[in-house]
Amino acid sequence: MAKGKRKNPTNRNQDHSPSSERSTPIPPSPGHPNTTENLDTDLKTFLMMMIEDIKKDFHKSLKELQESTAKELQALKEKQENTAKQVEIIKEKQENTSKQVMEMNKTILELKGEVDTIKKTQSKATLEIETLGKRSGTIDASISNRIQEMEERISGAEDSIENIDTTV
Asked: Which residues form a coiled coil (predicted)?
């Protein structure tokens, strides 16, 4: 560039830039004059309507989301209540089972005591029979039947104890 000949940067492209103003004016429409003020008002109105529609859609979506969340929350509460009820039922069953086991153990101890008593009685009876047999030389049939009955009772009691032990 030569000295003293500066170009003005604001005037650089004046001849080549497109103008923002039209060379021919826009003809006004018959029922609605097309002025800048009317266009601005129409655009503002249209923009406000769009904003209102967006707000309505947004509020509708929020309401649907709240309703959906409330339903899910209610379903979760119901599941929690059902689970709590099931836990309570299981606890009750466990307590009942524990009581039954304790009762069965008590019954087993009683049966074992009865078996021991029967065995002692049988031993005494056997000794008595042997003593009588030696004295008289014969064993009375009724005594033999009595011994057999006692042995059967002992066997039955022992079987009951084994059955109870296997079920517990």
From this structure: 59-97
Q: How far apart are CA 107 and CA 145, in angstroms?
A: 28
Neighbours of 17 (CB within 10 A): 8
Q: Are 168 and 104 in contact (CB under 8 A)?
A: yes
What are the percentages of helix, strand and coil residues in the chain, rounded to 5?
A: 80, 0, 20
Q: Which residue has the tokens 């099931």?
A: 86
Q: Which two tokens stand for residue 153?
A: 């009772």
pTM higher than the cut 0.85: no
Q: Show pLDDT as tens, one digit a residue, over the chain (168 residues).
A: 455 555 555 555 444 444 444 455 555 555 555 567 778 888 999 999 999 999 999 999 999 999 999 999 999 999 999 999 999 999 999 999 999 999 988 988 888 888 888 888 888 888 887 777 666 655 566 667 777 888 888 888 788 777 777 776
Q: For residue 22, report the phi and psi dihedrals to the nearest 5 degrees.
A: -80, 150
Measured distance CA(73)–CA(79) in Å, rounded: 10
